[in-house]
Amino acid sequence: VQLQASGGGLVQPGGSLRLSCVVSGSIFGISDLGWFRQAPGKQRELVAHITRGGTTMYADSVKGRFTISRDNAKNTVYLQINSLKPEDTAVYYCKLDIRGYGYWGKGTQVTVSS
């Protein structure tokens, strides 16, 4: 299983980005997926999660601004990020969970700065 995240970049405060994570293999549809982030000097934290059934959850710090979604036909999970703040600056990672195993992708850098 391989995960490839993309879509990060430099954006001004208040801007938006859409992150994508493409998953190889045939287990995407039966897996739970999450987006995490890690800022410099901080621990990696979960920001959004979506189950194989489509149930979503969000960290309090991103509720109302971040939206996680999945397209099983494209083996892709998305993270729409709106109203970006400087404190959202971090490397964003996607993760796939299935049957107690977790698979990580390489991160994509999001930098929020004017």
In words, what does this structure look like?
This protein has 114 residues and is mostly beta strands. Helix content is 0%, strand content 53%. The chain has no helices and 11 strands. The chain has strands at 3-6, 9-11, 17-23, 32-38, 45-50, 56-58, 66-71, 76-81, 90-98, 101-104, 108-112. The mean pLDDT is 95.
Global Rg = 13 Å
Q: Report mean pLDDT, rounded to a whole number.
A: 95
Helix/strand class:
mainly beta
Give the proportion of residues in helices: under 10%
DSSP strand content? over 45%
Poorly predicted runs of 5 or more residues: none
Terminal residue distance: 37 Å
* Number of helices, where a helix is a run of at least 4 consecutive DSSP H or I residues: 0
The run of helices and strands is: EEEEEEEEEEE
How many distinct beta strands?
11
- Give the overall shape: globular
Question: What kind of sheet is the major sheet?
Answer: 7 strands, mixed
In short:
With 114 residues, this protein is mostly beta strands. It is 0% helix and 53% strand. The protein contains no helices and eleven strands.
Question: Topology of this protein?
Answer:
Blueprint: E1 3-6, E2 9-11, E3 17-23, E4 32-38, E5 45-50, E6 56-58, E7 66-71, E8 76-81, E9 90-98, E10 101-104, E11 108-112
Parallel strand pairs: 2-11
Antiparallel strand pairs: 1-3, 3-8, 4-5, 4-9, 5-6, 7-8, 9-10, 9-11
Descriptive key words:
114 residues, mainly beta, seven-stranded mixed β-sheet, four-stranded antiparallel β-sheet, 11 strands, 0% helix
